[in-house]
Write a structure and sequence with these properties.
With 798 residues, this protein is mainly beta. It has 9 helices and 48 strands.
C-alpha cells in the first residue's frame, strides 16, 4: 500500500515557528518525565528464619543503568507493614548490593522487600519494587501454605482501544487474581441476542492472556464466556461498538514495527492525523498524514531503538491533537539482544565438598559481573521473574503479571507477549495530562551520595554566622580537619559523602585554642538530609496464606536444608569458641581476668561458654572508638552486629539479637552506646550459657578500679557519628574441613559475588565448593559493558 506520511523524525521534533498543543506536550514529556525503576536479585526465593538474604540491586533509567541516583533504600517489612530492617545502599553505575540477617525467632509469614531511590518518591509509589519473600520457621504456631483458591476476574481489551463497526478487531483477554490464576482456560465470543452460536473461540496462551479477532456490527452486544480448567465460568461484556472512529493494527517483526490505520466515517478522513512513538518517555518516532485517505500504513524501523529491545508506545492524534488510539508493542520479541559470558576454562566436579571453578575471559568488554551459583535440584522449574522481565516489563507496569520471566525465555510465545501488551496501559505519563500542560511535582532531586546538616552549639546557643572547625574521622583513616562557616540559622552542611563506615564528627569552635576544643560547653548534632520515606501503599497480594498448625509441621525441602545449614554454621563457630577457651586456660595460674570476673559478676551470669574482655588489667586499645559496640566488632567468635535506624550497632550472637545488661541490669542499646569506654571495667559475651542465654554484659568501674583507657580518648559532647552507607557483608567461600564435624553439607547458595571483576588481565574466576548432594549447578551471570549492552546467562553446569 502506498505510504502517504510526512517526514520521519528520530529522537527529536524539527523546530518550527510556533509549537502546537501536541508539540508542547512532547517537549513537556522530554523535559519533565525522567524516571527510574529497580530490580532486586536475591540469592534464594524463600528463606528460613535465621538465614541471611543476599541481594543485588539494579537501578535503570529506561533500559540503561541509571546515572540519576547514587543512593538506594532497601527495606524489609513484615506482612503487617512493620519495618524489620533497612539498608542504605551505595549505587555505582546503577548497581549496589547488601544483605539482611533474619532473626531466628522471626515469625513464619510472607515478608516484603521494598526498594526505591529518593528520586523515585516524586512519582507514583506503585512503581517502587516490592518483592515477596516467604520466610519459614519450624517453631512458629502457624504455617505458610499455597492457597488453592483461584478467584479470578477477566477483562477484554480491543487493540488500540477502539471497537469500530465493520472493522476486524483483535482482542486480548486478561485474567487477574489476588491469589493464583487457573493453569489454563478457554473461551468463546457470542452475540448476546443469539448466545447459542459462538462467533469465535479462543484458548489461553498462558495463565495471563488469550486473544481472538472478530468483526463487529453496529447495534450488537458482544460477550466473552471464559471457563477455566476447574469448570469455573464467567461472562464479560465487550465494549460497545462505535459507528465511527479509528482502528489501529500493529505487528512487530524482525525488521521493525508495521502499523496500519483505518478510519470509519471520519469527516476529514485521516488527513492531519499524527502518529507518535515513545520509548522510555522519550520521543522515538513521529509521522504526519498529509493527504485525504481512510487507510494508511508504514514500517517503523528498528533503528529507533538502536536495535535494542523494549516497549514502544504508539499514540494516534487527530487533526485537533486529540488522542484517539494508542497501543503498546515490543520491539523484536523473537530476537533478544543479549550477550553470553566468554568462558575460557572450567573445572566442575560432582564429588561432595569438591572445589569447582569457572574462568571468564579477561579480554571481554564486560569487566564487572554479578554471579550466583546454586545447587540445581533437577526439577527444571522455570524462573518466575528475573532481570529481563523486570527491565522490559514489570518495572514499567503496576498490574500483577503471573511468571513474567516466561515472556523472555527460550520457549517464549511472542503472541502471548503481544496480547499482554494490548491489555496494558503506559501509566508513567498520561497524554491528556501532557496536552493540558500538567507537569509532575519534583520535590526530591537526585542527591549526589549522602548529605548532612550539622548543628554546632556553644554554651547552649547556636553558633550563627561564625567560623567553626570540624574534625572528620572515618575508621582507621587519618582525621581531616576543615574550617566551615555556619549560616544564619547556625548550620553547617556536609554534602556528597560516600562513606561506607561511620564517620566521627567533632566540633572545634576555635582551632587555635586547644582548651576551647576540649571544653564541655560544646555540643554537636548531625541530621541526615537523604532519608527513607514511609510506605503508604499496600503490599501486593500473594498466593500464600497462614494456617494454624494441627500436627507435625511439614517444611519445604529447601527450608529443612537451610535449617541444617544454620546448625552447621553454629557447629563451626562452636569449634572456634572451644579453641579460644582452650587457649585462655592454657598455663594459667592466677588469672587477673578471672579474679575481675569473680569480683564483678554474680552466679546468674556465670557460664563456661563466655568470652571476657578485661579493661582494668589489660590495654584493650580502645582509644578512638566512640562506643563499646564499635570496638567489639570482630573480636568474639559468633558475635556480629547490625546497625539500627539510629546508626547504633546492635549485637547478635549466632544470628539472634543478644540481650544487653549494664551491671547485670537489662538495658537497651542506646544506653550502652552513650557509655564512655573509659567507664567500662569488663565486657562479658555469654553464648547460650548460664541463666541469661545469649547476652552481652557490660560492667562499669567501681571502688579502686581504674581503666586502661585514657580519659582523653573517651567521646565528648562535641562529637557525633555519621552512619553512612551500609557496607555489604562478605560471602565466604570456605571448605569444610574434618575438624568442623559437619556430617551433611546442605548449602543451597554455593557462591554469591555481586561484583566479580578482573584486574590487570587476570581472568575473573568463579570458585566454590560443592555441598554433599549437588550433581549440577545453576549459574547466573549478569554484566553490562560501558555502552550498557546486557550480558545475561542462566545455565545449568554439570
Amino acid at each position: 500500500m502506498k505510504n502517504i506520511f510526512g517526514v520521519l523524525l528520530l529522537s527529536m521534533v524539527q523546530p518550527i515557528v510556533a509549537q502546537t498543543k501536541l508539540e508542547k506536550a512532547i517537549t513537556n514529556l522530554e523535559n519533565n518525565y525522567e524516571q527510574e525503576k529497580v530490580y532486586v536479585l536475591t540469592d534464594k526465593s524463600q528463606y528460613a528464619a535465621g538465614d541471611k538474604i543476599w541481594f543485588k540491586s539494579f537501578v535503570f533509567d529506561g533500559y540503561n543503568r541509571s546515572a540519576l541516583s547514587t543512593t538506594l533504600f532497601v527495606e524489609l517489612y513484615s506482612s503487617d507493614k512493620k519495618l524489620i530492617a533497612w539498608k542504605t545502599v551505595l549505587l555505582t553505575n546503577g548497581e549496589g548490593s547488601g544483605d539482611f540477617q533474619l532473626k531466628e525467632d522471626l515469625p513464619e509469614q510472607v515478608y516484603f522487600v521494598r526498594a526505591y531511590t529518593p528520586y523515585m518518591t516524586n512519582f507514583n509509589e506503585d512503581f517502587q519494587i516490592v518483592k515477596t519473600i516467604p520466610v519459614y520457621n519450624p517453631n512458629s504456631p502457624e504455617s505458610l501454605i499455597i492457597s488453592k483458591s483461584s478467584d479470578w476476574s477477566a477483562k477484554a481489551f480491543p487493540e488500540g482501544g477502539t471497537f469500530v463497526n465493520g472493522t476486524p478487531t483483535k482482542f486480548a483477554v486478561r485474567l487477574s487474581s489476588g491469589t493464583s490464576l487457573p493453569e489454563n482456560w478457554t473461551g468463546k465470543v457470542i452475540d448476546a441476542q443469539n448466545p447459542n452460536v459462538p462467533l469465535t473461540t479462543f484458548k489461553s496462551f498462558d495463565k495471563n492472556v488469550a486473544s481472538f479477532t472478530i468483526t463487529p456490527a453496529s447495534g450488537k452486544k458482544y460477550q466473552a464466556i471464559i471457563q477455566d480448567n476447574t469448570g469455573k465460568s464467567k461472562t464479560i461484556d465487550l465494549p460497545q461498538v462505535a459507528d465511527s472512529g479509528l482502528h489501529l493494527e500493529v505487528n512487530s517483526a524482525k525488521d521493525g514495527i508495521k502499523y496500519t490505520l483505518k478510519g470509519v466515517n471520519l469527516k476529514q478522513q485521516l488527513q492531519n492525523y499524527k502518529i507518535v512513538g515513545t520509548i522510555n518517555n522519550h520521543l522515538a518516532y513521529r509521522a504526519n498524514i498529509k493527504q485525504l485517505t481512510n487507510e494508511a500504513s508504514s514500517l517503523i524501523p528498528i533503528k529507533i531503538s538502536n536495535g535494542a529491545n523494549g516497549v514502544l508506545q504508539l499514540a494516534i492524534f487527530d487533526d485537533q491533537d486529540n488522542l484517539v488510539a494508542q497501543r503498546l508493542c515490543f520491539i523484536r520479541p523473537n530476537d533478544l539482544k543479549l550477550e553470553k559470558a566468554e568462558i575460557i576454562g572450567q573445572s566442575i566436579k560432582q564429588t561432595p565438598r569438591s572445589f569447582n571453578s569457572i574462568d571468564l575471559s579477561p579480554e571481554s568488554y564486560f569487566k564487572h559481573y554479578t554471579v550466583l551459583v546454586s545447587e540445581n535440584d533437577g526439577s527444571n522449574k522455570p524462573e518466575e521473574e528475573n532481570l529481563l522481565s523486570s527491565l522490559w516489563l514489570t518495572g514499567d507496569f503496576t498490574t500483577k503479571i503471573d511468571s513474567p520471566a516466561q515472556y523472555f525465555s527460550k520457549t517464549a510465545n511472542s503472541e502471548a507477549l503481544d496480547a499482554l501488551l494490548i491489555s496494558e496501559n503506559w501509566k508513567r505519563f498520561d497524554w491528556n495530562s501532557l496536552l493540558s500542560g500538567s507537569v509532575p511535582t519534583i520535590k526530591t532531586k537526585s542527591p549526589k551520595f549522602l548529605s548532612y546538616r550539622v548543628k554546632p552549639v556553644k554554651n547552649n546557643a547556636l553558633i550563627i554566622n561564625s567560623s567553626v572547625v570540624l574534625l572528620l574521622k572515618a575508621g582507621k583513616s587519618e582525621p581531616v580537619i576543615s574550617p566551615f562557616q555556619t549560616d544564619q540559622s547556625g548550620y553547617v552542611y556536609l554534602n556528597n559523602l560516600s562513606n561506607d563506615e561511620p564517620v566521627n564528627v567533632s566540633l572545634f569552635a576555635n582551632s587555635g585554642n586547644e582548651k576551647e576544643s576540649n571544653a564541655e560547653n560544646l555540643f554537636v548534632t548531625v541530621e541526615p538530609l537523604v532519608n527513607p520515606t514511609e510506605f503508604t501503599g499496600n503490599f501486593p497480594p500473594t498466593q500464600y496464606k497462614l494456617v494454624k498448625n494441627t500436627g507435625n509441621k511439614t517444611l519445604p525441602p529447601t527450608i529443612s536444608r537451610a535449617i541444617i545449614t544454620q546448625k552447621n554454621t553454629k557447629k563451626i563457630e562452636g569449634v572456634e569458641v572451644q579453641e579460644i577457651k582452650e587457649v585462655e586456660l592454657t598455663g594459667k595460674k592466677k588469672d587477673p581476668k578471672e579474679e575481675l570476673d569473680k569480683q564483678l559478676s554474680t552466679g546468674m551470669f556465670s557460664s563456661q561458654n563466655s568470652t571476657i574482655f578485661d579493661f582494668v588489667n589489660e590495654d584493650q586499645h580502645a582509644e578512638g572508638f566512640t562506643n563499646i559496640f564499635d570496638w567489639l566488632q570482630g573480636r568474639a567468635a559468633g558475635l556480629t552486629f547490625q546497625r539500627n535506624n539510629s546508626g547504633i550497632n546492635i549485637p547478635y550472637i549466632r544470628g539472634q539479637q543478644a540481650k544487653l545488661y549494664l551491671d547485670e541490669i537489662l538495658t537497651d542499646p542506646t544506653m550502652i552506646a552513650t557509655l564512655p569506654v573509659n567507664n567500662i571495667a569488663m565486657v562479658k559475651i555469654i553464648k547460650g550459657g548460664g541463666l541469661v542465654g545469649d547476652a552481652v554484659a557490660i560492667y562499669t568501674m567501681r571502688g579502686d578500679l581504674k581503666s586502661k583507657v585514657k580519659k582523653n580518648d573517651a567521646p565528648k559532647n562535641n562529637s557525633s557519628v555519621i552512619k553512612g552507607y551500609d557496607k555489604p557483608s562478605e560471602f565466604l567461600v570456605e571448605m569444610l574441613d574434618e575438624d568442623a564435624k559437619i556430617e551433611n553439607d546442605t548449602r543451597e547458595t554455593l557462591y554469591w559475588n555481586p561484583n566479580l571483576f578482573d584486574s590487570d588481565y587476570v581472568p575473573p574466576r568463579i570458585k566454590f565448593f560443592n555441598n554433599d548432594s549437588a550433581k549440577q549447578y545453576k549459574v547466573l551471570i549478569i554484566s553490562f559493558d560501558d555502552d550498557d549492552n546486557l550480558l545475561y546467562q542462566n545455565e545449568i553446569f554439570k
